[in-house]
Automatic annotation (TrEMBL):
<feature type="transmembrane region" description="Helical">
    <location>
        <begin position="270"/>
        <end position="289"/>
    </location>
</feature>
<dbReference type="Pfam" id="PF00892">
    <property type="entry name" value="EamA"/>
</dbReference>
<keyword id="KW-1003">Cell membrane</keyword>
<dbReference type="InterPro" id="IPR051258">
    <property type="entry name" value="Diverse_Substrate_Transporter"/>
</dbReference>
<feature type="domain" description="EamA">
    <location>
        <begin position="20"/>
        <end position="145"/>
    </location>
</feature>
<feature type="transmembrane region" description="Helical">
    <location>
        <begin position="12"/>
        <end position="32"/>
    </location>
</feature>
<keyword id="KW-1133">Transmembrane helix</keyword>
<feature type="transmembrane region" description="Helical">
    <location>
        <begin position="245"/>
        <end position="264"/>
    </location>
</feature>
<dbReference type="InterPro" id="IPR037185">
    <property type="entry name" value="EmrE-like"/>
</dbReference>
<feature type="transmembrane region" description="Helical">
    <location>
        <begin position="103"/>
        <end position="121"/>
    </location>
</feature>
<keyword id="KW-0812">Transmembrane</keyword>
<comment type="similarity">
    <text>Belongs to the EamA transporter family.</text>
</comment>
<keyword id="KW-0472">Membrane</keyword>
<protein>
    <submittedName>
        <fullName>DMT family transporter</fullName>
    </submittedName>
</protein>
<feature type="transmembrane region" description="Helical">
    <location>
        <begin position="216"/>
        <end position="233"/>
    </location>
</feature>
<feature type="transmembrane region" description="Helical">
    <location>
        <begin position="128"/>
        <end position="145"/>
    </location>
</feature>
<feature type="transmembrane region" description="Helical">
    <location>
        <begin position="74"/>
        <end position="97"/>
    </location>
</feature>
Length: 292
């Protein structure tokens, strides 16, 4: 009986890992598609559009569940959605003052922050394999990003704050999301981000529906696969997978972006980028095989 229960647990964990890998892949694909087709859309127009599409996708998949949202669902979904929105907003602000390469590296520091905070909360030390995976992940990410120099400016500090928000989001989703239906929680998060993004559009950008229409096909693709599906899969997977493994596996996003940019955008991959990719791949394999 115990072996049967363990097999069921292992199967659920394997499925959660697969869902997180798919999430990281579609995030990477969305990044490349946005860079190729819709990089001229104002930032909050883009966020409002993709998260509205994502919310509608989840609503259409399970309308009855969405109509049963209660106060607890609304509270948790709004908190997580707001935290996720702040993460996106900080990236936007930080990019005004720092490079894209530094942004990619610093925003992924949550892979380091998550196990540190988790260890403090649990009053325990990270496992040996967790430490090895984190080290390889950060080394690989550093090589991929191609950062030169170690000085920090105002933009860098904003991106580090973004990584802190991302850390809080991963930990809170793991803690608060376990008792709430995946569809309801996913919908509420995305709808919250849509509302906040739309407010930012009205406050800081001139509302321009034509620019949305011009890129509607790509926005639909990004909204469905890179937003609706990924938010749902992450919400579902984090009920099983540990926060530490989530942070490490999500480094598959810059890995995917690197290679899809090479295939789709004809960007060049340097030797250190390939070496960095190897380190991240090893870190992902360790995280999965050792069930971090």
């Amino acid at each position: 009986m115990e072996r049967l229960e363990q097999n069921k647990t292992d199967q659920k964990l394997a499925l959660a890992y697969m869902e997180l890998i798919i999430t990281a892949f579609f995030w990477g694909l969305a990044t490349v598609l946005m860079k190729k087709h819709i990089d001229k859309i104002p930032t909050f127009h883009l966020l409002a559009s993709r998260f509205l599409v994502g919310a509608l996708v989840v609503f259409l998949l399970a309308p009855k569940k969405i109509f049963t949202i209660d106060k607890k669902d609304l509270k948790v979904g709004t908190i997580l959605g707001t935290l996720n929105f702040v993460t996106y907003a900080l990236i936007v602000l930080g990019l005004n003052y720092t490079s894209a390469s530094k942004t990619g590296f610093l925003a992924s520091l949550s892979v380091l922050f998550v196990p540190i905070v988790q260890s403090i909360i649990n009053k325990s030390k990270p496992s040996k394999w967790t430490i090895i995976s984190i080290f390889l992940s950060l080394l690989g990410l550093y090589l991929i990003s191609g950062i030169n120099g170690t000085s920090l400016n105002k933009g860098d500090l904003l991106i580090i704050l973004c990584a802190c928000c991302s850390t809080a989001y991963i930990l809170l989703l793991s803690k608060l999301g376990k008792e709430i239906d995946d569809y309801r929680l996913s919908f509420l998060q995305m709808f919250t981000i849509f509302i906040l993004s739309f407010i930012m559009v009205l406050c800081f950008e001139d509302l321009n529906l034509q620019v949305i229409r011009n890129s509607s096909s790509v926005l639909l693709l990004v909204g469905i696969l890179g937003t609706g599906l990924t938010t749902f899969l992450q919400t579902k997977a984090q009920k099983v997978a540990s926060p530490e493994s989530v942070g490490i596996i999500f480094l598959g996003e810059p890995l995917t972006t690197l290679f899809l940019a090479y295939v789709i955008l004809n960007e060049t991959i340097l030797l250190k980028g390939l070496i960095g990719s190897g380190f991240i791949t090893i870190a992902l394999i360790i995280a999965i095989l050792k069930k971090i």
